[in-house]
From TrEMBL:
It comes from the Bacteria. One of its GO terms (molecular function) is fructose-2,6-bisphosphate 2-phosphatase activity. It comes from Tetragenococcus halophilus subsp. halophilus. Keywords: Hydrolase. Substrate binds at residues 10-17, 60. Pfam families: His_Phos_1 (PF00300). SUPFAM superfamilies: Phosphoglycerate mutase-like. One of its GO terms (biological process) is regulation of pentose-phosphate shunt. This is Phosphoglycerate mutase family protein. The active site is at 11 (tele-phosphohistidine intermediate), 88 (proton donor/acceptor). GO terms for cellular component: cytosol. The record marks 175 as: Transition state stabilizer. PANTHER family: FRUCTOSE-2,6-BISPHOSPHATASE TIGAR.
Amino acid sequence: MTKTELYIVRHGKTMFNTVQRVQGWCDTPLTKTGAEGIRYLGAGLKDINFEEAYASDSGRAIETARIILSQLPNGAKVPFRVDKRIREWCFGSLEGGYDAEMWGVVPRVLNFHNYDEMIDKQTGFKQICEAIYDADTANWAETYDELSYRVRTGFEDIAHRIEKNGGGKALVVSHGLTIAFLLNLINEESNVRMDLENGSVTRLTYENGDFTCQEVGSTAYIEKGKELEQA
C-alpha cells in the first residue's frame, strides 16, 4: 500500500484577510494578489500526483482548490469533494469585525491584559475556544467539544478514505486556525497559532489511524512556482 499523505493548504489571501477582519464562517473572495499566489502554488505542486482533492465548503477554500487544480497537468481528472467539517472556526457575533477587536476581547475574557500576554502564557486552544464561546452574544460559536470533534473527524475521514483506496496523496484546502488546531489535536505540544501564511502547505502522513506531521506552513511550493514561471 502506498503511504497516505495530506497536503493541507491554507486558502489564498482574501478581501477580509487584507483589511484584517475576522473571517470564520463568513466569507470573502480571494483578492487578485491572493489568486496569483495560489496560481504560483499550483505550479509548484504540478509534479505531485494527487489521488483526490478536498476543500471546506467556504467559497475562498473552493476557489483556492480550483485554481490549484487548474495548474496541475491532470487536475481536471482529480476527484474533488467539499467537506464542511474542515471549515474555519465559527466566531459567532465577532464575525466580520476587525481582528484587533476580537483579539482585544478574548484575552480580557481570560483575564489577560492583551493578546501578547495571552500567547506568552501559552494559553491553550481549549481556553481560547471557550473564551470565544463566552464572548459570542449571538450564541453561534461552537463549544470546544463540537469544534474538536468536527475538525478531527473531518481530516481523519479524508485520510482514512485515501488509505482505504490504496493510499497516495490528497490535496486539502482548509483555514489557518483550523489547521493550527488540527496540529494541536495531533500533538498537544504544537503551539502554532495564526502564523500560517495564505497558500502555505502543511504536510501530514497517516497510517493506522494516526497522523504524523512532516512539514508545517511551507511556502516553498509558492516560491518554486514563481521560479518556474520566471524561467
